[in-house]
Amino acid sequence: MIIRHPTLHQLRIFTVLARHLNMTRAATELHQTPSALSIQIKQLSETAGEPLYEQMGKKLYLTAAGEAVARAGNDILRRLDALNQELNAQRNLESGTLNLSIISTAEYFAPRLIGTFCKEHAGIEVHLEIANRDSILERLKQNLDDIYIMGQVPDDIDGVARPFMENPLVVLAPGDHPLAEQSRIAPERLKDEAFILREEGSGTRLTAQNFFQEQGVQLKVRMTMSSNEAVKQLVAGGLGLSVLSRNTIAAEANAGNIAILDVVGFPILRQWHAVYRKNKRLTAVAQKFMDFLLEGNY
Ligand code: PGA
User: Fold this and answer.
1) Residue 246: CB partners within 8 Å, gap ≥ 6?
2) Which amino acid residue places its CA nearest to atom 5 of ligand 1?
3) Residue 202 C-alpha to ligand 1 middle, in angstroms?
4) Which of 2, 50, 179, 203 could form a disulfide with 152 if both were Cys (CB 3.0 to 4.6 A apart)?
């Protein structure tokens, strides 16, 4: 028997008929007339090239070909049901994996957001990579993750960047710095201060340098650190001023170890972006996380 193109509809009908072995009862279950049913089954027999059943009185008997078609039909329909359940599970976020990469400064807020999201969708497993800017851009290039969180987004990346949260950059000084009490400090008054800046390639550093360059102020960079924590400790310890995201300093500012200076032009208002590769088809879970970020209820 060579069976070529049975339709799913025909297979479904035939599996019901094979269960009831009675045309009227099968038609009732399928909400069809017995004659509509027998047309479909006749077409299926023609496709199969064999009769699929024999009728003796009111009772139907499946032929060997009919048994085989019924078995295959049941298998196919079960597989389709399983597929439907799997897709539904993904759509309903009962399960699935979310691969995220976030830039170092985002570790001050992103885990909290991820936590809120996971509480709402308990079946999701999150893989989180925290990395510096170069690694994040490399990972994006290699398409290793679903979504990337970064501040400064380069123009030439092959991605879609959606801003979702403010990332204000502020000038930090030790809590007891004389400028801490002053307001409307002109940027040029900072030209003789020692600065502790983030490393080359950091989005924070890039923005700070661009700002002071536009103001014609040459910063005295005393130290360069690749960690926000190290920068904060050095500022708190009196070794210099810095520019960091306000997201990084809540605890220190409250404790009074670090002051935010009222410098004209600051805070520099920037945004955190959720980024994904341009032609990437986001998974249902990733799309949901993207919507969650953009809705902003966290
Ligand atoms: P970074 O991150 O300063 O930690 O590199 C912020 C950004 O991407 O702008």
Assistant:
1) 168, 169, 170, 260, 267
2) 202
3) 5
4) 203
Q: Which of 90-104, 117-131, 161-175 has the highest mean pLDDT?
A: 161-175
| Distance from the Cα of residue 172 to its chain's centroid | 33
Cα separation, 104 vs 199, in Å, equals: 12
Q: Could you give all domains of the chain from N- to C-terminal order, each with its CATH number?
A: 8-74 (1.10.10.10), 95-165+272-295 (3.40.190.10), 167-269 (3.40.190.290)
- Which is higher by pLDDT, 1 or 234? 234
Q: Which of 202, 227, 244, 249 to mutate to test the pocket of ligand 1 (most atoms within 8 A of CB)?
A: 202
Pocket probe mutation, ligand 1, options 133, 232, 273, max atoms within 8 Å of Cβ: 133
- Give residue ranges with CB within 6 A of ligand 1: 103-105, 133, 150-152, 198, 202-204
The torsion angles phi and psi of 199, rounded to 5 degrees, stand at: -70, 160
* SS3 category, 37: helix
Nearest CA, atom 8, ligand 1:
151
Q: What percent of the chain has pLDDT over 90?
A: 73
Q: Which amino acid is at 260?
A: I
Ligand 1 pocket: which of 150, 207, 209 to mutate (most atoms within 8 A of CB):
150
DSSP for 283-296 reads -HHHHHHHHHHHHT
DSSP class of residue 241 equals B
pLDDT tens-digit series, residues 100-150: 999 989 999 999 999 999 998 888 899 999 988 888 998 998 889 999 999
